[in-house]
Design a protein that fits this description.
The chain is α/β, with parallel strands linked by helices. Helices cover about 25% and strands about 15% of the residues. It contains 3 helices and 4 strands; from the N terminus they run βαβααββ.
Length: about 140
């Protein structure tokens, strides 16, 4: 077989490696909406300090038992916004680029396909590192 001149393990495409962390929701256990799995994920981000962290919804799952039975302590929108702001603040110290991708099962987001990005007012200090994208989308990292 002829060798591909555009790819060779000895000639990487980038002189610097990138760590990309991907995680998919829901970020709550099935018996509550305390977001323990999300807290665990944020600890991993703080410890491993990835360059890019891509999180796919659902962030507050429409199929969750407490959501379906309306047993949340706040409105869907309030709990959802709190979840996203917790993620943004929880990844701030790592300095990673954060990409948030919606899901059709996100309880307080548009149930259409393709989905628009989340309508979130990102805190000013995080706007350069937080990217709210539509679903589907194409990401080009470096």
């Amino acid at each position: 077989f002829p060798q591909n001149p555009h790819f060779s393990p000895q000639n990487p495409l980038s002189p610097e490696q990138r760590m990309v962390l991907l995680a998919c929701g829901p970020f709550t256990p099935s018996d509550g909406v305390a977001f323990e799995p999300l807290s665990d994920l944020l600890e991993v981000v703080a410890r491993d300090r990835p360059d890019v962290c891509v999180l796919f919804g659902p962030f507050l799952d429409a199929k969750h038992e407490q959501v379906e039975s309306c047993q949340l302590l706040g409105s869907f929108s309030d709990v959802f916004q709190l979840c996203l702001l917790t993620i943004i603040e929880g990844t701030r110290s790592s300095g990673c680029q954060l990409v948030l991708v919606p899901s059709l099962r996100d309880v307080s987001h548009d149930f259409v396909y393709p989905q628009p990005p989340f309508p979130l007012d990102v805190p000013k200090e995080d706007r350069a590192r937080v990217l709210l994208v539509p679903e589907p989308c194409t990401l080009d990292i470096d």
